[in-house]
Every structure is written in C-alpha cells, then in structure tokens.
Amino acid sequence: MDKHINKIGVQSTEVNSESIFFNPEVDSSDTVAVVSAGIVVVGTILTAFASFVNPGVVLISFGTLAPVLWPDPEEDPKKIWSQFMKHGEDLLNQTISTAVKEIALAHLNGFKDVLTYYERAFNDWKRNPSANTARLVSQRFENAHFNFVSNMPQLQLPTYDTLLLSCYTEAANLHLNLLHQGVQFADQWNADQPHSPMLKSSGTYYDELLVYIEKYINYCTKTYHKGLNHLKESEKITWDAYNTYRREMTLIVLDLVATFPFYDIRRFPRGVELELTREVYTSLDPPGLNAGPIPEIDFSYLEDHLTRPPGLFTWLSDIELYTESVAEGDYLSGIRESKYYTGNQFFTMKNIYGNTNRLSKQLITLLPGEFITHLSINRGFQTIAGINKLYSLIQKIVFTTFKNDNEYQKNFNVNNQNEPQETTNYPNDYGGSNSQKFKHNLSHFPLIIHQVEFAEYFHSIFALGWTHNSVNSQNLISESVSTQIPLVKAYEVTTNSVIRGPGFTGGDLIELRDKCSIKCKASSLKKYAISLFYAANNAIAVSIDVGDSGAGVLLQPTFSRKGNNNFTIQDLNYKDFQYHTLLVDIELPESEEIHIHLKREDDYEEGVILLIDKLEFKPIDENYTNEMNLEKAKKAVNVLFINATNALKMDVTDYHIDQVANLVECISDDLYAKEKIKLLHAIKFAKQLSQARNLLSDPNFNNLNAENSWTANTGVTIIEGDPLYKGRAIQLSAARDENFPTYLYQKIDESLLKPYTRYQLRGFVEGSQDLELDLVRYGATDIVMNVPGDLEILSYSAPINPCEEIETRLDTTCGALDRCKQSNYVNSAADVRPDQVNGDPHAFSFHIDTGTTDNNRNLGIWIIFKIATPDGYATFGNLELIELGPLSGEALAQVQRKEQKWGKNTTQKREEAAKLYAAAKQTINQLFADSQGTKLRFDTEFSNILSADKLVYKIRDVYSEVLSVIPGLNYDLFMELENRIQNAIDLYDARNTVTNGEFRNGLANWMASSNTEVRQIQDTSVLVLSSWNAQVAQSLNVKPDHGYVLRVTAKKEGIGNGYVTILDCANHIDTLTFSSCDSGFTTSSNELAAYVTKTLEIFPDTDQIRIEIGETEGTFYVESVDLIRMED
Q1: Residue 865's closest CA among 929, 775, 738, 955?
Q2: How many Å apart are CA 177 and CA 48, to the nearest integer?
Q3: What is the pLDDT of residues 641-679, one digit of tens each?
Q4: N or C: which terminal CB in the chain sees fewer CB atoms within 10 Å?
Q5: InterPro entries given for it (predicted)?
Q6: Is the pLDDT of residue 827 over 90?
C-alpha cells in the first residue's frame, strides 16, 4: 500500500450512481459542447488531410465546418462561440467584459458571412468558369482574407487573450483553410480573367499562407502555455483545475494547432497521414473530489503519480485489477498494467499501482490491434454513523474495446465473473459521426490509495490517461500520401532522450543524444523520399540506416540559442524546426517490418541540441516526381527574390538563374501548364533583373568584336548547346606563344561606375588551364584559374542515330539535349578557394573597388581573360559584373591608399611621356606646309614621315601591360601624333591621282580579271599577275594641258615582260616596261628586294586616261602605281 496516506472528509447521504468515462472529451458535462466541437474539427481535418490526393479538389469546404461552429444558425448563430468564451472563463476563473465579448462575437459571425459569400461564388465558378465568375470569386476571396487579417487581432487582446484562445484558434483554422484554397486556385481565377489588373497570384497567397501558419502556431502555443502557467502559479489551484485546462485546451487548441503546418500545400500537395501522440488525463476519480483540493496531498504529488513523464509511446496489452473487501463492500486496491512499444508487442513492461497482494483480481486482456475506447464504472456509496460517505466501493467496470471496426465489452465484476463478449455497431458519437478519428484509446491507468479520515477505511483515486486514435499501431506507411511518423513511436532510444514537446508538434520529441530505433511497415512495394523534421542549434552529423540501406546526413542548425539551465522547449518557435530530406530515395518492401536506426555521429555535448519530431515518408511515383519537380521549381524561383518582392537577391548568380530556368522547363506541361507559365514569367523576370544589374555589355556573347561588346581574337570561339550552360558560353584555345595570347576583354565605362564602391565579377567555368583573369583599374589584379574539368553529365549520351527511339526521350528534336535528365557531378576533392561561390571550384567571384570617378579621364574597369600558354584552355560563361555597395572601413581606406599610390606613379609616367611627345610633335610639324596640316611641304619625302614616326614610337605605356592590344596610359598622346603621321601619309597619297594605287584596299577601284590577286608581302600590299591573260586597269579623270608624272614600283620574275600602259582618248600611248633584267633604277621606298621604280612624264590631251597593267609571261609584282600632277 502507498505509504503516502491521505485523510478525506466525507459527507452524509447514501448515493448509488454510475460514472461514465467514455473519453476525456466527455469527462465534464458542462463542457461537452465546446470540447466535442473542437474534437470534431480536429478529426475532420485529419481525415481531410489523409484523403487529399486530388490537387483540384478543395481540402475542406466551409460548408463542412460551418455546422460544427454554427450549429443552430436560426436559433442562435453565436451559441457555440459564446460557449467557447464561457469555457475559457470557467477554466481560468476569470470574466470577459460584455463589450469585448460582443465585439468578438460580431467579428466571428462576420467570418461566417464572408466565408459563406466566398463559397457561393467559388461553387458558381466551378460550375461555370468564366471571366465574370472568376472576378467575383477573386473579389470575395480577397474580401474574406482581408476580413480575417483585419479582425483576428480583436481576438487576441492582452487582457483576454487566454480566455479567447479557443475562439482564436478555430478562427485561425478557418483562415488557413481559406488561404489554402487561394494557393490552389488563384492562378486559375487569374487565367479566367486575363484583363483584370492587380490580381494576386497563387504564389503571393502562398507567401501569406506561410506567414500566417507560423504566426498562428506561435501565438496559440505561447498563449496556451501562458494560461497553463497562470493556473499553476495560482495560490489555491487544484490539480483537477490545472489538469482540466491542460486536457481540454489540448483537445480544442493544441491538437488543432498541430495540423496547421500541413496547410502548406506546396510541401504537402497530395495529403498527409498525421498522428497525435500526446496523452491527456481525465479528472480525478471519484468525481466528488472535484469540489476542492485533496487535503494533505500537494499538487506535485498528484502530478507525479497520476501522469507519466515524457517517454516512448506505449500500447496497453492487458490490465490486471485488484480489489479488497471491507465490511461495506469492495474497493479497487491495485492495478498492474502491461505495455509495449510500437512494433514490439512481444516485449512488455509492467507498471504496478496500489496494493497487488490481494487475492481478488481479474485480468482484462487486449488482442493485437484491440484498444479500450471507453469504460464505465458502477460504484456504491456507504454512510458511516450518519456523517461520513465512502466513495470508492466498486460494483462493476465495463471496458468497451474496438478492433477491426467492431466493439466489444469486457466486464470487471467484483465476483470475478466476466460477461460474454458481444458484437455491436460502432457508436454514433458527436452529431452522428462514426469516424474513428474522433475517438481516444485508454493508455494509462494509475492509482493512488488513501485512508479515510476518522475511519479505518481505504479508498482509491485515479486519473485515466488517453491517447488519440490517429496513432497507428504498426507505423504503417501509406502508398498514396505522405506519412508522418512521430519518432516517439520508436522501440528503443537512449535513456532520458524523450522530452516534452513545445505544444505544436502533437506530442513529445526525441532529443537524439546517441541512437534511436523504430519499426515501420510499408503498405506496398514502393520507393519513398524520407525526411526528418528536426531542430538543432549546431551542425550535427547523423547516420540513418533503413533496412539494408544507409545514408549519412549533416543536419544544419535551425536555431541559435544554446541549451542551458535557462533554456526550455517552450522557447522554441515553429520556424526553429525544419525538414531535411535524404538525397537518396529508398525502396521499402511490402508488408515487411523495416528497422530504421538513427545514430548521432558526434560525441554528445551538453548544450548541443538535436531534437527530432517526425520521420516523413513521401511515396515516389510519376505523379510524385511531377509534383516534386513543380515544388522544387517553385521553391527555387521563390528564393531568387528578397522577401517575395521584385528585387533579386544579391547572391543569386546569373548561372543559378539559368539552372532554375531548367527546373521550370522540366515541369510537366500536361499536368501543370498554368503553374509552369507563371513560373516561366517569374524566372524570365529574374533573368531580366540579372541582366539589368549586369554592367557588362553583351554578356551572352552575341556580337563579339562589335561596338560596345567583347573584343576577342581568332582563338576565341562561341559555343552553344553545352549541357552546362543554358545560353552561350565562350571557349579560349591555347596560345601560339606568350607574345600572341588568346584573349577576350571589355572595358566598363566610367559613366557606369560610382565612387568608392565595390563591384563583383562572377561567372561559371566548366574547366580551365592557365586561364588568366585581370581586373584593371589602379593596376592589374592577376588571377590564374585552373579549374578541373570534372563535371560529368549523367544520363546524357548522343546516340549513333539520334532519331532512333525518339519517343522514349523527353526532348522533341532529334539529337537535342534533354536537360531534364542531366545531372552535374562536382569532384569533392577539387581545390576550393575563398573567392569561389559556395565552395564550388567552378563558380568564381572576384571584386574590384573604385575610388574617385572622373568621366573625362574615363579610367573605367577593364576585364581581361587570356590564355598565354600553348597548353592552356578555358570554357566559361554567365559572366556578370554587379554593384555590391559602397565601401566603408578598412576597404575604403585601402582603396584610397591604392588610388593615391597609383596617382603618383601615373603623374611620373605622364611627365616622361610629355617630353617625348614635344620632340616628336616638333618633327611632325616640319612635315607640313601649314600649321593646320592641310598640305605637305614640297620637299617632304616619305622617309621624313618614317623618321618622325620613329620618334612617336619612343613614347612608352601606350598599351596595357596586361594585353598589348588595349590602350594604355599614354595612348591618347600617341594616337594624336600617329594620326598626324597618318595625315601626312594621306596627303602624300592624295598627290596620287590613281585611286588605291598602293593596293592597300586590295583591288578596290581597279577592274581586274579573276586570275589576279593582291598579296601581303613583308606587310606591304602587292598586286600579283601570274598569267599572260591577266589584266588590271583603272580609268582616271585628269586635267588636259597639265603635266603628270607616272611612277611605278614593280618587280618582274621569270621570262617575259611586265608593263604598265597609259593611254588617253586621243590614242596617245606610253608604256613602262619591266623585266627580270632591270637594273639602274631607283629602288622602292620600302626597300622590297629587287623592286624598281620607273617614272614617265605625260601631257594628256583629253580629260580621261586609262592605266592598264599586264604581262607577257612569268610573274609580275606591282607595289604601287602613282600618277602625280606637276606643280604650277
């Protein structure tokens, strides 16, 4: 017998009654209506989630919940809500003011009105989709949503928040159900009314749904604990009052809150099987003890002896009841329970309460799958000397059990005779519903024995524990919807690893300190995606073995608070828990028990917390794959933007956007056409934002070497159709030698830059060897990238005949790449540098800073890629230069020092160049007859021009040290002088009446036969005639009565002659003849070997002449043909 003896004062009168304990929800007759309503709502939602397999069907219609929350609309539409408020007042012994109550009731009834109007419009739209019906349902949906957003705060007034919590939770559920439908159908409504402006999309409502899921969960949970703690801290609180609040607010509030996360339709698009593993307790038995606290037994003693501490979920296998006889009758003196963990029924544990040494006993045995759903107790009372009443005399206890949809009765009689079992129909509890989801199972039968005051009588006190019937006894995994299995249903776990849940998880949690094992069973042979729902304050490695398969995962931290003496589980919010999905899908056999073992791989350290709530199993099939493709694409698109705005996140690269675009394009057109179109619009918008912030011109390499584009030489190739790039990429081949590198460069104009700002160059390299990258502003930042070419494209190979078996492939063009089947693999051993994006050696990012900006100086930023080795190569793409933001602190000071040093060196170089510039300029001035440079001096020879040009070339820093084709510091000075040199050459050429007489433009302006050509010989253009019938001619306009000098520089090889003939319309003919034997003539100005110059004076009589060039045989080379008019 329990050593803790309680003396109870009893009253006179003799009563014989029956106490009914169907379930905890009917424990108090005063609260049947509200508790029953809460239980029915929860059961309805659990059933709806489990059967939600068609995305086109509403999860729960408002018409399903309305009869529960507004049961008598004609009599009193506010009745159940008033009872919710009265229930809150009774539980906490407080009062809601009449004004507050009336305002709350008005808002609650307003919710009904807007939901009713919306559902009517929705049903009209479903029957007749059109622009009008779509417009109406959109408007009424938004009105209903706005009504909830505006008026829910009226149910959370600080003074009355705990009293109105039941109303708030039920209303929150209605709001989430509404938003769930908005996510489902908003895009369809919008598509049916394409010309309506300012419509919210499904994505917008999804963002709001997530916000309100988190908000409602956190508020309801915190407010529940606030009320519970208030009762516990009250001076005269009874255990019964405390337990009643805990029980009934769990049934009404916490059970409902535990379903809120599963309104996330994009994470659970096909429904989910949920289980509530929490345990609730009836009020104290005998019921007469409810009137006040039990003398001499404190609150903590009752809590410790009548409720169980957190532990693994258990099932009753049998109950052995013991009675003891006294003169007045028999009382219940002892209980022995046998329990087992889920899936481990052959290993039972026994708990003993009271005195089990008595001879009178009876065993109530439960078969596997049989549960006690309610029981009734017949008892007797005894008057003692007219002043005392004895409560605990037992006549009979009837246990009603449930198995395979049938009910049975098992009787406990004081004469130890069981009544026969009978089969009955399932009882119609709570408004005629026969759903087993509304039931509870007996889980715990604790007992305390006490002595009656002023008498030698003993009497027993107990409070029955119950668990929700949603809990599956086999951990059965559904083949059609997601299955959430709480980890507290494990059969083995490290000691003290089960902790009390925060309230919104539907039960207790496992704090994984070492290992945990659970048994599950799949209903059919199928592959599943397995996830953990967990919370951790540090990165923790966990190994997971599922049957013969195993995987290791690194769970990332989800919250930052450390576990210490001040930390409690109630400090955690909903967002502190996250899902982690195993990378590999696992196939489970049909109807076989599968052992799943979880092991924490690090050494447990106090304060480093890993909490696991549930294991999730999502069945994998074609539908699931399509759904996951859709969800993956949606999530990938959503994370591109900042908090659901139209702003692109700074760390989102252009390459990443392209990869997300591939995900979107892989969405099934047949199943999700509208969703795909919406996501395509979003990803195209993201690409537009990426392009808008990209300061590079032509980042997709559409027009190399065009104005305002990239400059490249012949070793650069544009590639398309590379599996790793959605757009074009660039390929740099090996260099001939270091003096002739393969290059690609671009300058960012100063006008695009901001002062004291950091810019970042990013891109993606498929593979490279000796790829040099230079970012040039205040000197060059030389970077060499050797990126391993270790990216393999899985499931992609070009068939011998790409048009064979085309129907088996997803792409529709013969030989086209199927991006939906490709998968990249990056060698984990690849060298990783700090400037690589997210540790990926193929993604690079480097920054460059600006100091002061000057548009006149136009220093800009030069971006230069080059290969300068014969073994080098590179393939890269998705280049972008973006603004990161203004400089500050050390970065600002550093760029100021760098700019100052660069400025000093630049000034010195400019001073040296100025001296050379002055000398060259003076020499060039002497070439011209006037200061404007419009006419050469008569005595200026071509050698004078060449001498001046040599002085110009003494100027240094004309071209970049990084790449010799890029302008350098003194480029403008050099080009000014070079332009004047060129002007001299042009004036020299202008003396020549023959157009293109030096063949610099090939055969332009000449009439030539097809067997003539212009070759480049020692950087000089030379006309080559190699056949006797080859001919080149040009007709010229001249001024008659003026003299002209014909000057020809040429060379003849082989036998025969070459000739240049000049004739006019008067048949005057003059000819210069060349042969291989020519000697004694002036050599050409460019000193080409064996070339000679011959001249001839002519005085044409007509205004037109013709020059003809030909040969008799051999080869005739002509360097220039000049016809210079004689000066007056």
Answers
A1: 775
A2: 11
A3: 887 567 899 999 999 999 999 999 988 887 888 888 989
A4: C
A5: Cry1Ac-like_dom-VII, Cry_V, Galactose-bd-like_sf, Pest_crys_dom-III, Pest_crys_dom_I, Pest_crys_N_sf, Pest_cryst_cen_dom_sf, Pest_cryst_dom_II
A6: no
Q: What is the DSSP letter of 307?
A: S
Fold of 711-800+815-887: Jelly Rolls (2.60.120)
Please give the structure tokens belonging to residue 1106: 């013709």
CA atoms within 13 A on the CB side of 960: 20
Q: CA-based diameter of the chain, in Å?
A: 164
Nearest partner of 601 among 641, 555, 654, 653, judged by Cα: 555
Output the pLDDT for position 922.
93
pLDDT at 1121 > cutoff 50: yes
Closest CA to 598 of 618, 575, 614: 614
Q: Tokens 């980890």 — which residue?
A: 487
Nearest to 710 by CA among 1082, 966, 438: 966
Q: Supply the DSSP string of 335-392, one letter for each residue.
A: EEEEEEETT-TTSEEEEEEE----SEEEEEE--TT-EEEEEEEEEEEEEETTTEEEEE
d(Cα 171, Cα 262) in Å, to the nearest integer?
Answer: 17
Give strand pairing partners of 466: 280, 442
Q: How many CA atoms lie within 13 A of 388 on its CB side?
A: 15
- Residues 322 and 504: their CA atoms lie apart, in Å, by 38
How many Cβ atoms from other residues are within 10 Å of residue 607's Cβ? 12
Same fold, 476-620 and 711-800+815-887: yes
1086 or 966, greater pLDDT: 966
Query: H or E element: which one contains 144?
Result: helix 131-151
- C-beta of residue 330 within 8 angstroms of C-beta of residue 379: no
Note whether 612 and 512 are within 8 A (CB): yes
Residues in a beta bridge with 1061? 1071, 1108
Backbone φ and ψ for 714, nearest 5 degrees, come out as -70, -10
Task: Name the CATH superfamily, with its identifier, for domain 476-620.
Answer: Galactose-binding domain-like (2.60.120.260)
Range 1007-1125 classified under CATH 2.60.120.260: yes
Amino acid at 257: V
pLDDT value of position 802: 34
Q: Tell me: the pLDDT tens digits for 572-591?
A: 999 999 999 887 778 888 87
Q: Identify the burial level of 705 via C-beta atoms within 10 angstroms of its C-beta, where 0-12 means exposed, 13-18 middle and 19 or more buried.
A: exposed
What crossing angle do the helices spanning 622-638 and 654-665 adopt, rounded to 10°?
A: 150
**pTM higher than 0.85, yes or no?**
no
- Six token digits for residue 115: 């939901």
Closest alpha carbon to 89 in 104, 108, 109: 104
Tell me the residue type at 736.
R
Count the Cβ atoms, other than its own, within 10 Å of residue 993: 19
Place of tokens 């000089």: 1020
DSSP-based three-state secondary structure for 450:
strand
**Residue 251 DSSP one-character state:** I
Q: What is the pLDDT of residue 380?
A: 65
Q: Where in the chain are the domains?
A: 30-274, 282-307+314-415+423-434+441-471, 476-620, 630-693, 711-800+815-887, 894-990, 1007-1125
CA atoms within 13 A on the CB side of 139: 10
What pLDDT score was predicted for residue 413? 80
1063 in Cβ contact with 1046 (< 8 Å): no
Yes or no: say if 443 and 465 are a contact pair by the CB < 8 Å rule.
yes
Tokens of 765: 């390299």
Superfamily (CATH) of domain 282-307+314-415+423-434+441-471? Pesticidal crystal protein, central domain (2.100.10.10)
What is the percent of the chain where pLDDT is above 70? Answer: 84
Residue (of 619, 611, 562) closest to 586 by Cα position? 619
Non-local CB neighbours of 1043 within 8 Å, separated by 6+ positions: 1097, 1098, 1099, 1125, 1126
Using the 8-state DSSP alphabet, how is residue 609 labeled? Answer: -
Angle between helical axes of 165-192 and 62-69 (0-180°, round to 10): 160
Domain 30-274, classified CATH 3.40.50.11540, yes or no: no
